[in-house]
From TrEMBL:
Top-rank lineage group of the source organism: Bacteria
Organism whose genome encodes this protein: Blastococcus brunescens
Residue ranges annotated for the FAD-binding oxidoreductase/transferase type 4 C-terminal domain, each copy included: 3-220
Cofactor(s) required for function per UniProt: FAD
SUPFAM superfamilies: FAD-linked oxidases, C-terminal domain (SSF55103)
Name the record gives this protein: FAD-linked oxidase C-terminal domain-containing protein
Lineage: Bacteria, Bacillati, Actinomycetota, Actinomycetes, Geodermatophilales
Keyword line: FAD, Flavoprotein, Oxidoreductase
Length: 246
């Protein structure tokens, strides 16, 4: 993925999905996907005409040089839509396996493969199904943990895996959120990424703009951890004001 950018290619779409997602989508769509593939990379060019052909062929060559087992390209819009359908159906396919806890971790493009392998290791260690889809062009990944929220042990392991994934992302030089923001579930990780000084700056800005604490109270600067959310159940995503402001 890194070479796509460093060589100057600018595809309009560059998406990746891991083997767990490939198999889940194949189960759902009966699409005859390669269930043995470690990952699937989908690219699209909007350059138009011969420029698009050259861009896709250059990208395909990079994939071959990287050791891809199968590289396929098409200029048929209908066939292209079918190829993209696999990526679009990744989340619905994972939802067939249970409730989903979706993460939003971004890592350097050069570390995406390590991130996928790391998530596989976390899934094995926590005895859970974790599928990863993501935007390979900017390194923004969406690990999705499948679990039964009615099973206390599974719920605990799912939230522990969520922490493991955040730790993995930071260890690879990434960030705990690529596009969706910190939100309620990651607030205890904010200081670990930006440091205490930066967090104090955030608090000072919040106090200056909202001295009475009326705006979204208790949502960002609380001290509770992600496992506290697991203890009180998924309803904690709706209202965390009872936890108290930071």
């Amino acid at each position: 993925m890194e070479r796509v950018v460093t060589t100057g290619l600018v595809p309009s779409l560059l998406e990746v999905m891991d083997n767990t997602c490939i198999c889940a989508v194949d189960d759902l769509l009966k699409a005859d996907l390669d269930r043995g593939a470690h990952a699937l990379l989908v690219a699209q060019s909007d350059a138009g005409g011969e420029a698009a052909v050259r861009e896709i062929e250059a990208l395909a060559q990079l994939c071959r040089e990287a050791g891809a087992d199968l590289v396929h390209s098409t200029d048929d819009p209908a066939e292209g839509d079918l190829l993209l359908q696999a990526r679009r159906m990744a989340l619905p396919a994972l939802e067939q396996l249970g409730s989903t806890l979706i993460d939003d971790v971004a890592v350097p493009r050069s570390r995406i493969a390590e991130f996928l392998d790391g998530c596989d290791a976390i899934a094995a260690g926590r005895a859970l199904t974790i599928g990863v889809v993501g935007h390979a062009g900017d390194g923004n990944m969406h690990p999705t943990i499948c679990f039964d929220p009615a099973d206390a042990d599974q719920r605990e392991r799912a939230f522990a895996a969520f922490d493991d994934i955040l730790e993995l992302g930071l260890s690879l030089g990434g960030t705990i959120t690529g596009e969706h923001g910190v939100g309620a579930i990651k607030v205890d990780w904010l200081e670990r990424e930006i440091g205490p000084v930066a967090l104090d700056v955030h608090r000072a800005i919040k106090d200056a703009l909202d001295p009475a604490g009326l705006l979204n109270p208790g949502k960002v600067f609380r001290r509770a951890g992600v496992r506290d959310l697991a203890a009180v159940g998924t309803s904690a995503f709706v209202d965390l004001t009872a936890v108290g402001p930071g």
